Amino acid sequence: MTSGGIRRSFTAWAALALALFGGAAQANPHPYQLNMQRGVSTWSQVPYDLNNISLGVCVVIGILVFGAMFIAMFRFRKSRGAVAEKWSHNTMLEIVWTTVPVIILIVLAYLATGGITSWSDTTGSQMTVKVTGYQWKWRYDYVDYLGKPISKVGFMSKLDTLSDQTRQLGSGMDPYKVMTGDENTYLLNVDKPLVVPVDTKIRFVITGADVIHSWWVPALGWKLDAIPGIINAAWTNITVPGTYRGQCAELCGQDHGFMPIVVVAKSKADFAKWLAEQEAQSAAPAAAPAAASTAAAPASAQTAAAPATAK
Amino acid sequence: MAQPKMQQAVTDQFDADRRKGVRRTVTILVVIVAAFFLVSFVQIMLMK
Amino acid sequence: MSHAATHDQHDDHHGAPKSFFQRWCMSTNHKDIGTLYLVFALVMFFIGGSFAMLIRAELFTPGMQLMQPYFFNQLTTMHALVMIFGAIMPAFVGLGNWMIPLMVGAPDMALPRMNNLSFWILPFAFTLLLSTLFMAGGGPAGGWTMYPPLSLQSDSLAYVVFAIHLMGISSIMGAINIIATILNMRAPGMDLLKMPVFVWSWLITAFLLIAVMPVLAGAVTMLLTDKYFGTNFFNPGGGGDPVLFQHIFWFFGHPEVYIMILPAFGIISEIIPTFARKPIFGYKAMVFAIASIAFLSFIVWAHHMFAVGLPMGAEIFFMYATMLIAVPTGVKVFNWVSTMWGGSMTFETPMLFAIAFVILFTIGGFSGLMLALVPADFQYHDTYFVVAHFHYVLVTGALFAIIAATYYWLPKWSGRMYSEFWGKVHFWNSVIWVNVLFFPQHFLGLAGMPRRIPDYNVAFANFNMISSIGGFLFGASQLIFLGVLIHGVWFSKKKATDRVWEGAKGLEWTVPSPAPHHTFEVPPVIHDDELAHGHVND
Predict the structure, then answer these.
(1) How is chain C split into domains, by residue range?
(2) Which residues contact A284 (CB under 8 A, 6 or more apart)?
């Protein structure tokens, strides 16, 4: 093999390895992506590692079992003159293949239990955001940040206009032309994203207004159902600033596929600036009430959001 | 035993036992079905 | 021979009734009713398959090309309902009807008239269900899981609920019949632990059906009263709880998925020993594994609900219980492989499908194990990874077992050999295209594509197109199956022998091919050597 060939094959393997175990560089889906992403939060490594470990375990067991099957299929063919044996029992083997899986399962269960425990611990959060699922958009209400309550920062977040026009039946528009920068954001972009700070433990309280939705940003490592009448809690602590895209993950009616989620993680300083702007904006219409309180948030949504925003 | 017997003798007793068994099995199963149907309601009521 | 064998069988003692209506609509014969079930399942398989073709056509490229999103949701919902309740379950009931009396040496099912009723309910149930597609409000579009409050928004809810009630009644009657038959109608000498594994698997499955179909009936009844009679079981506005529906539904739903796979285990456990010419490895372990899986199926339901915000303790419990299922399932797979080891194998079409079952079902089991891990499930849940998982266990699992069983027993049913060449053509096409169809869906799910969406970002385009191509060709391959069946039932010149397969053992192979209208009117004498599992010591 020439050195060029070696280099090429190395590049191919590297590309495959990147596709399989691609890290934080690829926080949003990309063509021919083969494996789960590592994510960008302090916890998102947990499902990623579990995924890789359990996949590895399955591949090894698969090679052993299927390997034995294929050997059997070649060695014990009637056409090769194989004569059937009579045995149908082997205590030793049966004990082995009952206990070995149990041991493997205990290891996996141990790892997963640790992950659940850390995920369930929403205490000590520095910020709270309320997420409400509507048919077919999301509402975000900022409840508190660094111990101080935030009032009147909340907005609806729905599919961006360009995606919405393109996705209409017979629109004649090309999904490949829905770009944000050099990234295709067809069906993965919104008019107003959720903005959060990095390196902050953010508690999300998630509920639904009409039917069940599910709030999912793969880069954060989890999804949680938004159920009317129930308030679920989860947390994240994003380590890398960036834009992270997700979608509703529970069938919620005709436009279930068209209510994406976009989370923009900013540095703490940028976030403080953004938050101050938002607070100023919501204070301004309060001076002239009739003006445009509907622009930021429809009145109905405001009422629906009221109970959880309190206290 | 050159020619094994291919069929067994069937008596009235055998037939009656069969019928009784079927009746008993069906009764028990129907009771289980009804119980599970009602339990699903009871469970919902209790958990609310 | 004794005198009293035929008390109640004064009619059509020597053959099938002549008139078409009498023979098929008024039949009380387990073989004819079994045939009806199988034909019905085949029709539903093609109807449900056509829905799947439309789904894959819409998903062929990004952008909406063919249909409105609401119609797409109707298609996914109907595809699931038709395939689960119309194709897979009736096919297994049909196989059970045909084969269980033959395998245990019974003259017929224990309750032949009820048998007729449980079949003839089904066409009406599915007419009711499918008719909603032609109504103004459209068919059900809230997914086959019918989660409220979404399902309560549908105009066709009442039709769906009544259709499900009918299917449930049919299944319950079928299950009662099967249990009553197996427990009471066995020929003397056919001990429980000499029964074929297929009969065992159906006995256990029937108990699952009896326990969970009433629960489903309860759940959908509550949906109905919530929508039309002002109750608030699941309506949060009135103090109800939508999550309770999910608990009730999955208490039914998880045993339901084993209802669709346990008889498949039974079938594979008959086919592999036949073509390996070696008794099944660990007969008792196989039966015990099926029973353990059935038991565990009742305590794992909430693994479908890891993302609803369960308490941490519940998530841990259901994760552990779910992972436990891997043990008996693994035992079954290892036993099948050990049955092949040291055998003398030939690879006729049923054996090919059985081997494909073992491999591909195991792949579905692997992804099931991955899904059981709660933190990983937070990512997998409701993505195409799940779609890939359950299609591996249901298509290459349950469906492949049904196809294998059809090739295996068709000569016994029709008295003619199907075309081995075209059977193998069907096999290779199916097994290749089904993997092209479903394997890329794992990648789509891992990359973040949610399920039940009619349109997607261009990042998912490549694998969706590959998957759709696989889907169309897999669908087309099933037309070969139809051709092989028609040829094998009516036109094949090659007569089947009574034994059909060289290594076949069991009572069903001692009757002529085709099996006469009435068999074992007098119980056969059981010779352990003739049984597939006559000498069980372990």
Answers:
(1) 33-530
(2) none
Q: Measured between beta carbons, which residues in chain B are less than 8 angstroms from residue C222?
A: 41, 44
CATH of C33-530, one of 3.40.630.30, 1.20.210.10, 3.40.50.150, 1.10.150.130: 1.20.210.10
Rounded Cα distance, C448 and C160, in Å: 31
Q: Find the mean pLDDT for residues C101-118.
A: 95
Task: Provide φ and ψ at A156, rounded to 5°.
Answer: -85, 150
Rounded distance, CA C222 to CA C208, Å? 22
CA distance C203 to chain A (A): 23
Distance from the A293 Cα atom to the nearest Cα atom in chain C, whole angstroms: 27
Chain C positions touching B5 (Cβ under 8 A) are: 525
C282 to chain A, any CB pair closer than 8 A? The answer is yes
Task: Return the residue in A223, A235, A244 with the most chain C beta carbons within 10 A, the one to mutate for interface testing.
Answer: A223
For residue A88, the model assigns a pLDDT of: 83
pLDDT band for position A136 (50/70/90)? very high
Contact A186 C323 (CB under 8 A): no
Query: Token pair 């390196």 is at which residue?
Result: A199
Interface predicted TM-score (ipTM): 0.90
The correct answer on CATH 3.40.50.1000 for the domain covering A127-280+297-309 is no
Report CB contact under 8 Å: C381, A223: yes
Pairing of strands A202-208, A127-134: parallel
**Residue C89 · residue C77 · CB < 8 Å:** no
User: Cα–Cα distance between C45 and A105 in angstroms, integer?
Assistant: 37
Cβ of C248 within 8 Å of Cβ of B43? The answer is yes
**C chain contacts of residue B33, beta-carbon cutoff 8 Å:** 172, 176, 210, 213-214
Tell me the catalytic residues of C.
79, 108, 144, 170-171, 254, 256, 258, 269, 303-304, 329, 332, 451
Does C527 lie at the interface with B, CB-CB under 8 angstroms?
Answer: yes
Taking residues C211-218, report their average pLDDT. 94
- The conformation of residue A201, written as its DSSP 8-state character, comes to -
Residue A306 confidence (pLDDT): 39
CA distance C388 to C369: 13
Closest CB from C110, C219, C522 relative to B40 = C219
- Residue A4 is predicted with a pLDDT of 55
Q: Which of C62, C149, C340 sits opposite A72 (nearest CB)?
A: C340
- The answer to whether C511 faces chain B, any CB pair under 8 Å, is no
Q: How far apart are CA A246 and CA A38, in angstroms?
A: 15
Measured between beta carbons, the chain C residues lying within 8 angstroms of A89 are 281-282, 537-538
User: Residues with Cβ < 8 Å from A60, sequence gap 6 or more?
Assistant: none
Instruction: List the alpha helices (DSSP H) in chain A.
Output: 3-21, 45-75, 91-120, 161-166, 268-287, 293-296, 299-309
> Is C344–A232 a contact, with Cβ atoms under 8 angstroms apart?
no
Q: Report domain extents, chain A.
A: 45-120, 127-280+297-309
SS3 call for C476 = helix
Q: Which of A32, A65, A224 sits opposite C337 (nearest CB)?
A: A65
Contact A151, A170 (CB under 8 A): no
Residues near A144 by beta carbon (within 8 Å), at least 6 away in sequence: A127, A128, A150
Q: Are C143 and C452 in contact (CB under 8 A)?
A: yes
Estimate the crossing angle of helix C89-104 against helix C197-228, to 10 degrees. Answer: 140
How many CB pairs lie under 8 A apart between chains A and C?
307
**pLDDT for the residue numbered A311:** 33
Residues 6+ apart with CB under 8 A from C85: C125, C164, C167
pLDDT of residue C1: 37
Average pLDDT in the C205-221 region?
A: 95
Residue C264 backbone dihedrals phi, psi, to 5 degrees: -65, -40
- Of A49, A299, A230, B29, which is closest to residue C244 (Cα–Cα)? A230
